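User: Protein folding is very new to me. Would you mind checking the protein record under this note? It all follows right here:
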Amino acid sequence: MSRETEGHQADQGRPDDDRRDAPVGGRERTFGGGHLIDLERRAIRTLIGRKAKMSDDDSSTSSVESEVPEKEEEEEITDLSNSDVCTKYQEASKIVNLALQGLIGECIPGAKVLDLCKFGETVINAQAGKLYNKKVNGKAVEKGVAFPVCVSVNDVICNHSPLASEEVDPLKAGDIVKLDLGCHIDGYISVAAHTLVVPESKGDQPKDVDPKLGDCAVAAYNAMLVAAASIKAGNKNDAVTEIVNKVADSYGVNTISSVRMHQMKRFVIDGVKEVALKDPTPEELEAGEEKVSECTFEQAEVYAVDVAMSTGDGKPRPGVLRTTVFKRNVETQYRLKMKNSRYVLSEVDKKYPTLPFTLAVFEEERTAKMGITECVTHGLLTPYPVLHEAKDSLVAHFKCTVLLLPSGTTRVTGLELPEYFKTEKKADEDVEKMLAEIAAAAAKKAKKKAAKKKKKKSSS
């Protein structure tokens, strides 16, 4: 997921950032400026094989003509200042929301987690396949799944996308399900996550929802809303962390300590700018936990606003479920020893060179499971571990994508909070004021959209 892990994901920012994140569970490492790589550009080159093109010398060209410097190729604008880029984010967002809505309807008693994952990815690929089918410079536009569909049940927090040979028990009424997925169009990524309770049967509303779960879900959803509103040009990440913790305290729940919000760029799902849900304690700092570096949000940026909360201690832990989601570290190279490992890496480099994938995509599951270990050991792949809360803890997870446009921050993914999540608790006065402003803006937008739709219908 934009990712919830016990550490940071490997990624690079601009050359002057002079840092990169370590793989899961590791500590942040720093490098000299001479060794830095701009991951965004590297990812794009890796995926579409971009190379600078030089004109062939004509045999009749004079020596004087050959000395005339060539005009540099104009650099492509890949942020929101480009209207075409903005449109691609919007289209990917529509697909994400559609896939979420479809999955919610499929979460009924007896549904298999593996089938739900396949269903979600089928929706994403089918819808993306309808768009941008004209080749650009002779090459097809890349599009489809940006983050594998994950279905995490009850105390499982995130990143669960099982293999066919390791299917878990089917869903039952009352299960708490966290859905997490992403779509991209030409490398421009939109992500979302949603929490629901499995009803008695399709079309029904869940009954007797635990009030503590209501507190947790409302807290997580409201924290996502105020965090999204706070991520605007000129603001700093520590202010977002502060307001998220205010919300958690008001509802008597804990944020999941390992969850991070990330900036997203073209073909980069976990960018270098990030927001922690919780600052590490002195004890955690002493144990080696890294504090998130301060950053300032800028116009034309894109962020995954990721919030997970729990009635437990908020400290994720590994469980028995296999890690199946990984991402290629495009800046790392190593000569692998095992044939299976070389096969896995070769397939990843061809099909999933920059964005996360699941082992389920490999036809030879046994070969993939054998080969993945050496790739992870040598830093070629970063794992997204399946994280758990303490047994009997209640977990809620919501995520949306925001675009920092000239008109302000716009939330483009994420569904409404299910009505059956209720609480009698209130946030503090400042947060309640923000929530009221957000609700008023949403109502105004919905009214305007309805009027536009009515006008269009009457004129047709």
User: Anything to note?
Assistant: The longest strand covers residues 143-153. The chain has one domain: 22-27+77-427.
